[in-house]
């Protein structure tokens, strides 16, 4: 008889994720909605192109049309909620007890959950980033405004768009592990990931700007998600923004591990 | 295959409590040593020490709130003891990677996600321990849920959830099994089935610990009893020894001449209490002796009924002052 390998734990978490009808609906509808949104924006731009002023044409960037702040909001809330529910779903239903009786080495359960959620979200984010870019390029190619993949800035934006999902999913897990209550976790995910950062704007106080530059949605909105960067000390730097994208999920993973290991269930 | 693993399924001996197997029985023991769990200032479990051995069904008894569930959770590493230790196989349970192969447990039938099917729930658990997929259909058949494997657990009755929980406990074919109040919600057929299952598991040389707050349940299931109240050990002995603690053993006699018979029996060394009307309750004399005496002294008997000491009564007497939640007027409680 073979002992349980980490691969088996990953498979178990995979089964748990996809055996819930809510997960399948959330992923299916969420991906379709974001792509449909990109199609609609692109069609609007193509149909209105003839009426655009030269100024509007000069400012137009198709990358902003295909994946707007609204799409990012939807993606972050969706991914964060799914991430939170993978943990809260266990605690709120009591399933955590059979789970940890089956695998008493808790860090392995947490590691498997983090891996599965992170990987699934990365794949979903990459799919959405590529699909929204692809359909809008196809629609806008008639206007001569399609952007080239030879531009490194395009790749940066596409990568940042793709990473929003895994970053949000793992942060959601951390929040879920901390709160262990379904409604509270979903509200906290929305508040922390999207709602609070929406109100942040660059200010004259540099210390506030530095503080804002630690928030994932803010750095995406003001730096990573923009095709053309402005050289402005009030705005986050690219390197700093990538660091924020890396540190939040890392911190969330550590938090999840500590909280799940420590607490009685 | 880990040490202390039971024989492969299929070869099922019948239940015999005395069948302590010479081989590796040490590896199947649950040992609880000075176990204490405090919540704030309140001790849910207080200095509990006992050992659960293989080959027997051990009943784990106590009134509501006595600390049974907390103890079981600490044995399984789900709750951290304030002090003391609980081990299975001589190791703390949290050390294991594949827990289902070392101990199977049903703690609460509600501990499932209602959105999953029975098959998906068990598949995830089985896979996490590297158990083959066929174990899922095997245990579902064993507990009688094979017709509802694809249905979502949210629509299950409590009895069906208990069966699903038992199925999960059996997945890993573990040498040690813990069941917390497994009979709740089961119909009479289910109760019979589950008793038979526990007997069989013990007969296979496994260690079986079954908790309940109902003594009557244990009367038909357990060989040994561990009784706790307010987190402390009250008794740890065989069912027969426990029953003998009760003041129950007595004989009920009905006669048209109770005064005469009472005099005769008292003279013979019996203790007689006059009940309503023509009935006497006699202790200290056997039914046969009472029959002889009444025959010799020509006292007519209408009824001569020995009453066995009941476990229920012994349990009530022992736990009377240790119940956490008690009604203001205890109903039918011998004081």
List the helices and strands and how they pair.
The complex is a heterodimer of chains A (265) and B (335).
Chain A (H helix, E strand, L loop, with lengths): L5 H13 L2 H28 L5 H6 L2 H5 L2 H25 L2 H7 L3 H35 L11 H28 L2 H17 L7 H7 L3 H9 L13 H25 L3
Chain B lengths: L29 E10 L2 E11 L4 E5 L6 H8 L7 E6 L14 E4 L11 H11 L5 H9 L15 H13 L5 E5 L7 H16 L3 E6 L2 H5 L4 E6 L2 E7 H7 L4 E5 L3 H10 L3 E4 L4 E5 L3 H10 L6 E5 L3 H9 L16
Parallel strand pairs in B: 3-7, 3-8, 5-6, 6-7
Antiparallel strand pairs in B: 1-2, 1-4, 8-9, 10-12, 10-13, 11-12
Structural features, described:
The complex is a heterodimer of chains A (265) and B (335). Chain A has 265 residues and is mainly alpha-helical. Chain A has helices at 6-18, 21-48, 54-59, 62-66, 69-93, 96-102, 106-140, 152-179, 182-198, 206-212, 216-224, 238-262. The radius of gyration of chain A is 20 Å and the shape is globular. With 335 residues, chain B is of the alpha/beta class. Chain B is 29% helix and 24% strand. Chain B is built from ten helices and 13 strands. Chain B has helices at 68-75, 118-128, 134-142, 158-170, 188-203, 215-219, 239-245, 258-267, 287-296, 311-319, and strands at 30-39, 42-52, 57-61, 83-88, 103-106, 176-180, 207-212, 224-229, 232-238, 250-254, 271-274, 279-283, 303-307. In chain B, strands 5-6-7-3-8-9 form a six-stranded mixed sheet, sandwiched between helices. A four-stranded antiparallel sheet of chain B has the order 11-12-10-13, covered by helices on one side. In chain B, strands 2-1-4 form a three-stranded antiparallel sheet, with helices on one face. The radius of gyration of chain B is 24 Å and the shape is elongated. Residues 1-26 and 329-335 of chain B have low confidence and may be disordered. Chain A binds chain B through residues 1-5, 8-9, 11-13, 15-16, 19-22, 89-90, 93-106, 108-109, 264-265, and chain B through 1, 73, 76-80, 93-101, 103, 105, 107-108, 110-117, 120-121, 123-125, 127-130, 165, 168, 172.
């Amino acid at each position: 008889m073979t002992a349980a390998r980490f691969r088996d734990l990953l498979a178990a978490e995979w089964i748990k994720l996809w055996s819930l009808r809510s997960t399948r609906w959330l992923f299916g509808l969420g991906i379709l909605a974001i792509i449909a949104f990109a199609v609609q924006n692109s069609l609007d731009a193509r149909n209105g192109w003839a009426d655009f002023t030269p100024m509007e044409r000069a400012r137009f960037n198709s990358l902003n049309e295909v994946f707007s702040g609204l799409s990012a909001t939807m993606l972050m809330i969706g991914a964060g909620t799914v991430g939170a529910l993978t943990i809260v779903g266990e605690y709120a239903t009591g399933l955590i007890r059979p789970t940890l009786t089956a695998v008493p080495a808790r860090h392995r359960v947490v590691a498997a959950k983090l891996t599965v959620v992170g990987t699934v979200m990365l794949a979903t984010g990459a799919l959405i980033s590529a699909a929204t870019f692809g359909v809008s390029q196809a629609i806008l190619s008639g206007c001569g405004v399609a952007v080239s993949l030879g531009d490194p800035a395009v790749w940066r934006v596409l990568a940042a768009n793709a990473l929003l999902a895994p970053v949000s999913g793992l942060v959601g897990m951390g929040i879920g592990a901390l709160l262990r209550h379904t409604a509270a976790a979903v509200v906290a995910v929305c508040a922390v990931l999207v709602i609070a950062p929406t109100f942040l704007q660059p200010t004259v106080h540099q210390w506030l700007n530095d503080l804002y530059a630690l928030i994932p949605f803010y750095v995406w909105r003001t730096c990573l998600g923009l095709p053309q960067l402005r050289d402005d000390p009030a705005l986050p730097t690219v390197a700093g923004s990538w660091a924020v994208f890396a540190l939040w999920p890392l911190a969330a993973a550590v938090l999840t591990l500590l909280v799940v290991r420590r607490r009685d269930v | 295959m880990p040490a202390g693993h039971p024989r492969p399924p299929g070869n099922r001996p019948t239940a015999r409590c005395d069948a302590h197997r010479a081989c590796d029985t040490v590896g199947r023991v649950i040992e609880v040593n000075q176990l204490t769990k405090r919540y704030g200032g309140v001790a849910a479990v207080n200095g509990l020490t006992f050992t659960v051995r293989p080959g027997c069904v051990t009943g784990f008894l106590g009134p509501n709130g006595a600390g049974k569930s907390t103890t079981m959770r600490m044995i399984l590493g789900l709750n951290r003891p304030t002090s003391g230790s609980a081990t299975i196989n001589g190791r703390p349970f949290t050390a294991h990677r594949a827990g289902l192969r070392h101990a199977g447990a049903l703690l609460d039938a509600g501990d499932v996600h209602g959105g999953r099917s029975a098959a998906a729930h068990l598949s995830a658990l089985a896979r996490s321990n590297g158990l083959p997929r066929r174990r899922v259909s095997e245990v579902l058949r064993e507990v009688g849920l094979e017709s509802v494997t694809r249905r979502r657990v949210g629509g299950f009755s409590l009895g069906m959830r208990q069966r699903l929980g038992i199925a999960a406990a059996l997945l890993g074919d573990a040498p040690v099994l813990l069941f917390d109040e497994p009979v709740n919600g089961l119909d009479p057929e289910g109760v019979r089935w589950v008793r038979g299952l526990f007997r069989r598991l013990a007969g296979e040389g496994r260690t079986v610990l079954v908790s309940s707050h109902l003594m009557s349940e244990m009367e038909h299931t357990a060989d040994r009893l561990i009784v706790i109240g307010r987190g402390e050990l009250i008794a740890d002995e065989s069912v027969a020894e426990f029953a003998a603690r009760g003041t129950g053993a007595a004989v009920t006699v009905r006669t048209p001449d109770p005064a005469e018979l009472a005099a005769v029996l008292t003279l013979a060394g019996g203790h007689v209490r006059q009940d309503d009307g023509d009935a006497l309750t006699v202790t200290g004399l056997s039914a046969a002796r009472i029959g002889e005496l009444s025959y010799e002294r020509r006292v007519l008997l209408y009824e001569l009924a020995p009453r066995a000491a009941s476990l229920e009564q012994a349990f009530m007497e022992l736990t009377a002052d240790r119940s956490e939640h008690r009604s203001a007027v205890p109903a039918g409680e011998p004081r």
